Amino acid sequence: MKFSSDRVLAFFMAMMATSSSLCFGQTAPPGTEQLGPDNTGYCTNQENGRHDYAFTLQGETITIAECDRLCRSNNDLDGLRGFSTYEGDQMCYCWYDDGTAPGMGLPPDECPPGSPFHQCRRWPDGFGPIDALMGTFGFNCFRYLEFPVAQANGDPHFRTWKNEHFEFHGQCDIVMTKVKNFASKDMDLDIHLRTSMVQYWSYIKAASIRIGNDILEVQGSSAAKEDGEDKRHHWINFEYRGDITDLGGFPVTINPRNDKYIIDLDSAYPGQKIEIKNFNEFVGVKIIGATEESFGNAVGITGDFKTGNTYARDGITLLNDFNELGMEWQVLPSDGKLFHEMARPQFPELCYLPEDPRGERARRLDESNITEEQAEAACAGLDDEFDRKGCVYDILATQDLNMVGAY
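Now predict its structure.
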């Protein structure tokens, strides 16, 4: 049989070759039927990092909204993902992507008139086993979804809700983001960062997250890497190294291998989580899978969720000068006390700013033992462009190639 593209056949063969087991041990969500390798469905892990997963609705008419919801709720990778609906047998098929290349391996074609999807492709009819796996439904359309990710890490690099990157090298406590009525009408979420200045640059030395009445603070440490327990500093409700089970009712786990604290928001917002990672003295925070339902009214130095713009506290004034933005979102007494101890400066004393960060950085780069090329090579394995740029900057600032571990 002839096919319009060799890539189509290669893609099918890859699916067939990897469909012998379920991906990442997933099970079917309630009200759905797990599709396995027995000619009723498939699940694949491919070399490009995508996770493919299919399931059918039981006795219900499949809709785009329902497929969207189910795919989001079953997400176990960060970054971009997609879904498609197969009306022929009420099947919903999800693609999970690690964010390295949206739609990698899935060439775009024009969607039929009236399609709600961004891209489409034709599956070849009559392709033997594929008939049994998927049926022949003519057009199979898929939509890739961008889930906003707010992030702060390193010295300090910020990513706004609309994926813009900037740096603020002042020293003070900063409101990363704040959300009113999070998960319930009487529960708020606040994330504060504490930065510390070293000559012409600064870094995030601690992060504190409050959900409802619970507060988790994580602080970096310069202790020896091999002494994993001793270098982990956290406070739960101001108790040093207190037992952590949950934060505001959301489960918290600690991964000792990469010093990452994970707050699982799945019970209220499927597929969403907050990660805090520390590497030596450096701390980073990443909000993953945010939607308008969960973070729709979020404001802070990472911007306004709905517009992605970096506003002042009045919600009107647009700030494009990032020193002004950092000063604007310095923690005020009205923002509450989230850290276990006070550190200068505290408002009304304003954030400390380096005198000439660009000039001093240029001079230091001229004197560096590690070149920019060496830093780029060390960071080349990072998939995310934001992480690569931050990694290069951090290595050059610290003159430590091991800083790649912060990402």
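The first strand starts at residue 32 and ends at 34.
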